[in-house]
Amino acid sequence: MTTSKYLPREIEPKWQKRWEESGIYRSVEDPDREKFYCLEMFPYPSGDLHMGHMRNYAIGDAYTRFLRMVGYNVLYPMGYDAFGLPAENAAITRKVDPAQWTRQSIEKMKCVQKRMGLSYDWDRTLATCEPEYYHWNQWVFLQFLKKGLAYRNAAPVNWCPSCSTVLANEQVENGGCWRCGSNVQQKDLEQWFFRITAYADELVQDLDRLEDWPERVKIMQRNWIGRSEGAEIHFPLVGSETVISTFTTRPDTVFGITYMVLAAEHPLVGELVRGTDREEPVRQFSERVKGKSTIERTDETREKEGIDTGRCFINPVTGERFPILVADYVMMEYGTGAVMGVPAHDQRDFEFAGKYGLPVRVVIEDDARSIKAETMEQAYVDDGTMVNSGPFDGRNNREAMSDFVGYLEENGWGQASISYRLRDWLISRQRYWGTPIPVVYCETCGTVPVPEEDLPVLLPDDVTFTGEGNPLAASSSFGQTTCPGCSGHARRETDTMDTFIDSSHYFFRYTDPAYEQAPFDPEKAAYWMPVDQYIGGIEHAILHLLYARFFTKGLRDLGLTDVGEPFSRLLTQGMVIKDGAKMSKSMGNVIPAEEMMDKYGADTARMFILFASPPEKELDWNDHGVEGSFRFLNRVYRLVCKNSHLFDKPEDRPDELPDGSLSLVHAAHKTIKKVTEDIRNRFQFNTAISAIMELVNELQRFSSDGGELQPGDRWAMAEGLRTVILLLAPFAPHMAEELWELTGGSYSVSVQPWPPYDPALAVSRTVQIVVQINGKVRARFEALPDSSGEDLERRAMENPKIIELLKGKELVKSVVVPGKLVSLVIK
């Protein structure tokens, strides 16, 4: 008999080596087979992987292994989102080269992922920091530039005057620089943008095509794009020919306007107060507002601030003059940067008007009661009857909305309009560790794209990381160049691209990462794309997923692909929670993946992650649960080893099976059906594993019932064990390989056909037996209808719950009702 000791430290490296040497997980296009492209969001290579990270990979790998066994031609690659600020920060604080730090981190991560037994096609691995990858970022930029989807414009940035550098929003902490604490300023710089707004309507409309995306994610994207139908209204500035335009979704309230507020960044602010006694106070207020973060300015719960410019506008529908203020809650990037104030019918406006003594005018009344402006305690925001609204008095505001817009258009005061919260994608970053933007500036020719034949524009090595300014701007070897147009002197663009660009098309590149003529081979992409199943965290619901959708549509319109949506199905897995908080390095509550594998092995870690919670729910880390998964795998291992003799001379199925064997066959087919449906249709790995555990229990009982197994019993037991091994293969692949080899199976278990089930046999032949103690139901178990009373009593006494309840107690009496009940009396 083979040793029954489960030794993952010996088993797992053995099979990992065999998988790698045989190349069993390499993917090749095969038009005769149905493809399936499964992908997890690729990680940033921090180097340290904990069990929170590993949950994402375990989900994808288990699903992929199942898909291979059911016959799909699977593409399952892995890469690394390798550009970004952490590597540059490491260069500053640790005095290390970011490229070296990143590549070392990648190798460390890759080793841990291989130890987990993840079945990636490692031949397709890519890292976005390598020139052969970011070459295509630059190439796409040039194509977008030709199509008008890339352009340069002035835009406000977070500026640290002490460090002389631009800061990302996440680097601004309480209004200060994360590095030195200096007050952050808003500064206008020339920046590069992608015109994502050109696809705003399509991005909204196509969400309806994504039937297998979580509704929550689609709602988040719709809200982020923020498509709103309404009117753009033009307000003349008193004493000037200037007209200020605002967008509103409530044109029915225009008769109730009593003020207007502008964003601090609005270009009219300086002009309105120039040469007046309001110039200096407004300037100081505006500068203070610009120093606030977007999150702070748009916080609905805080008190809003404003300042009067001393200037007025005319409400065209009434001819009245009202004041113009600058307010901290108005953002230049939303709407037109000017907002009309209707305090009677907007709560924010109501509170602001109360603070600054601005008038309130009711123009929509509640049909159930009269509303007086002087007695209002809050804004009336519901529908009702229009009042104080000229020719629209007495009409329902909703029913009159389109007529009111027509009224504005007829009089030249405005027009119907659609507005978006979405703004063009600012891609410029004043950092070193990113993709150089392939543009040069020439005094003679102006802005000149780098010719495609000169790509990639490489990052230089002669840079110094001081934490002040952009290292690229200080590199003479990089900054000074020759103009491709006139061959005169030129300077390179020293901004690099937002790293979200790297992750916006990588899934195309996986289809042929060595292709040299374009970002991807169109024929291979046509076979593999779109991604059939995408897996990642909910935190990427907006930016990454939205940018990837935009990029795909842009690549489609370049003629590179026919695919309009990159991801057919999306699973957003829940977080791993430990000690009441998300598992993260900053919280100090991480369980390193290597530590877990050193102690229990990869298969145990995988089993616990997949068994403890449904993938989309939070997973509460539990050390006892890990121990339980380890014990279960040991139990399976011992059970197969104990019965390994059954596979020395495999038997054919006899024409007739004893009742016990037939019940085992029924249990096996029922389990196959359950596991298949739970994985394929519902991603419910936890209930699938639970079903396998129940089958193992049945096999153990069958094996331990005493007496020598008869021919039919031997066949049923062997088939049951083979079924368990095959069903466990997606979850515990190393042990499944070892046991499959032990039972005489051919290499590899990963490519064996998934066990089929007979619907007629997938119906349970068992009944549920209730166990009572002193008249109260304490447990239940499954048994054959004709099980003897002696067998039922034994099964009841072996139940773990019953064992616990009987500790220290005396069994006075037991009564068995065959097929129904075991009743115990204790004292």
Strand order of the largest sheet: 2-1-26-27
Mean pLDDT comes to 92
Total helical elements: 25
| Total strands | 34
The best one-word shape is globular
Query: Helix share of residues?
Result: 25-40%
- Secondary-structure-based class equals alpha+beta
- Give the end-to-end Cα distance, rounded to a whole number of Å: 45 Å
Largest sheet: 4 strands, parallel
The amount of beta strand, in percent, is 15-25%
Low-confidence segments, ≥5 residues, pLDDT <50? Answer: none
Radius of gyration from the CA trace? 34 Å
This entry's quaternary arrangement is: single chain
Account of the protein in words:
The structure is a single chain. It contains 25 helices and 34 strands. By secondary structure, it is α+β, with helices and mostly antiparallel strands. A 4-stranded parallel β-sheet has the order 2-1-26-27, with helices on one face. Strand 7 and strand 8 form a beta hairpin. The longest helix is centred in the C-terminal third of the chain and has 24 residues, at 659-682. It is globular, with a radius of gyration of 34 Å. The protein starts with 7 loop residues before the first helix and ends with a strand. The model has no long low-confidence stretch (mean pLDDT 92).
